[in-house]
């Protein structure tokens, strides 16, 4: 896996993934940025959310669960000192569908957290406390 980060100006950078997709990263105005893109640490949090969401949906699809929507809400705490690393992250899944088995959603979240999500497992090994919760929302 490869990526390239190119400086644009001020605190703005353009990141390009090895698969050819681009994203703008920028800082706030008080740090030389123009607030035109996500912050690098936000990108890291988004990566974790995407990684675990991908796992959960993949597992639920293989279990043939009738999912109509899946939202992961992440909340992170950072250290007050430099480096302002993540100290804890909570991931809350809202999984919607008709006739979803709560046990299947619970298993999918647990498997992602403990076995499949490379991002969360890597961050945990680095000392970040990561917790998970979920809710099943029944549709008509």
TrEMBL record:
Gene3D superfamilies: 2.20.25.10, 3.30.300.20. InterPro entries: KH_dom-like_a/b, OsmC/Ohr_fam, OsmC/Ohrsf. It holds the Pfam family OsmC. NCBIfam families: PRK10738.1. PANTHER family: PROTEIN YHFA. This is OsmC family protein. It comes from Parathalassolituus penaei.
